[in-house]
Amino acid sequence: SMQCFPGLVLALSSLLGVLALLQLSLHLRVPSRYGKHEERLCRPRGRLPARCAWFLQELPSFLVPALLLALRSPPRLEPLGCRLLCCLFCWHYFYRTFIYPFFTRGRPFPLQLLFFGMLFCIYNGFLQGYYLIYCAEYPNDWCTDIRFTSGLLLFLLGMGINIHSDLLLRQLRKPGEVTYKIPQGGLFTYVSGANYFGEIVEWFGFAIATWSLPAFAFAFFTLCCIGPRAYHHHRYYLKTFTDYPKSRKALIPFVF
Fold it and tell me: In the Enzyme Commission scheme, what number(s) does this protein have (predicted)?
């Protein structure tokens, strides 16, 4: 039976922080080569349809924690706070795996990026699941702790912004279209990367609710990974559309 090794949690969390800084250094000036940014760079050879690629990439983040829970004997059902936190993580990735891909209208996805995305989802799914299922210890009243309640509210707010922004982006295209248009409505009124802003808020909310090093490392990674992409989206819109609203910020309303 698997047991908790705090040293392993510390090592994997620290490595995640290093990977976050690496992502930031790689993509602060040059965006990842997919979507609206691949036209200006060399096109990767192998690609998969967007729906299939997103499903395969996100699936490990849902399956790995579920497998870890199934392997634990006896199953961990207490305390309630720990169970809820694990459910929040799996809830996000249930949506990203089984719902989001079947509505997306994105362009074909590079196999190379899919491979690295899957590796990351396996890695992070293991780290978050392993910590919550085998290592985390919360008091029985954690559900009433200010860290849990405020973090949960942030998580739900961020997830709501993320899902709503994805919906607005989908509505920009008719089936079969691959052209890019100016996003309108919702938080897009203020920021170019409303969907990214929502996901960042979501994972920092999760980190506060979990109050753990693995969750904060993941939130930091999310910021370093999709923060630069939001910045490059903003620059793309400004260069491509002469009528793009100059009042919009790149990622955070009224700041960037």
Answer: 1.3.1.22
